[in-house]
What we know:
521 residues; five-stranded parallel beta sheet; 26 strands; 31% helix; globular
Amino acid sequence: MLANQAPVQTMRDVVERNARLHGDELHLIFGERRSTFRQFAQRARKLAGALYSRGVRTQDRISILAMNCPEYLEVYAAGEVAPFIIAPINYRLAPPEIAYIIRDAAPVALIFEQQYEPLIDALRSQLPSVQQYICIGTNGPRWASSYEDILAAGSEDGPPIYPCAEDVAAIMYTSGTTGRPKGAMLTHSAMIALCDCWSNELSADVGDRILLAMPFFHIGARSQGGAVTYRGGTLVVHRAFDAAEILETVQRERITQLHLAPTLVQSVLNLPDIDKYDLSSLKTLNYAAAAMPLAVLERALQRFGPILINGYGQTEGAGTTLRKHYHRPQGSQKDLKRLTSIGQPVMSTSVRIVDEHDKEVVTGSIGEICLRSPQNMVGYWNNSVASIAALRDGWLHTGDMGHADEDGFIYLADRKKDMIVSGGENVYSREVEEALMAHSSVADAAVIGVADERWGEAVKAIVVLKQGTEIGVDALIAHCRTLIAGYKCPKSIEFVADLPRLPSGKVSKVALRERYRKPSA
């Protein structure tokens, strides 16, 4: 019978293959909860079957608002078993941002953790597409169904519908330069390519255990966890990041794979008792999400050993890896330069760097980084204009500026989209500026990223107040928190009489970055 099994083409195939070939192996460890691949597949099928019996059909959207938990993975898997589209929601966003995403995705069902009941209840009148509310928890509101009750009523055979490779599996929302999030549509084939690529980069296999503390609404956690699951390895899930708990879990569960943004790596390294932990089981630490300061990188290599890799990509598509072999902080000048790169293209990805006319530039010249890969999105949900602009000529135009050297290492130079990477989170200056400008005392505002030892980059606002008005820094930051997520809000604000401008009248971000650039040590 095994010889007649079809090759893996959809994410449902991954769920079913693991249940068939690795059924008794651990799929998930979450605190005291442990489940096998067979148990996970059974619950995924039952949830998909229950949703189908309640009217959810092919390519209908289902949204989930939750912190990391086993149910989150079951919702993803239910969408993979049936061709439902899962549209996760960043729980760190402000209520207006959450409402916008739900309205844009137009889910027929919204699954949420009980702690978010007041938020969802306040938004219900603004969410016309949602036909059913499903609460994860033991004491949900009367207007929502119980997650466990719904799952228990589902058929163990799952729904009578099946995905195909080109069905959309997920809509992953990413911030845009306009201040409105855009939903990147990722198909089953793109997710398979993503999992396959990263399983190779991580050298993942049956018996591996990856510790996931990054949130499941991020493509990072999905790609890293998916890569290990793809090969039959185990997911060890933390609800949120805690530096000491990371090390305790690595030691207790014999973790082999670890995925942390650079700022989180730094938090772990700063623990005063780090040397008491046995971390010898680790074979890979992926610090993808942002660049790692050289001093921190050297400390990480000294403590963890030569196991670090860095990956570059976007929610919309993946691209490059700086592999373990090239992490040589004690090497030649060439080696040190490579540590500042984002690595080389992965096996399935082509990279080209183009000018403003989409013509490829010569080696060493700066241009926009473009990616062609089976991992790329097929477009932005409900946004054909942005889709056409991003996917011109079959290439994903990342909006990131950079150059390549003669060995194919790619170096970031600047961000065409004016993005700030703070603590591994993407922040776009435009949406922060709009939040600042929404205050009645603010006449003008510009936002830039400045170097920060903890966050990599910190959000800095330069603000011009209206004549005759006053407002303090803390009050203005508090105002921003009512409109945008806390991590997007300025870490510092400077009040000025005017902003530097280009001849065109636009604010000169180059001049501002130079003005607030920290001098070299």
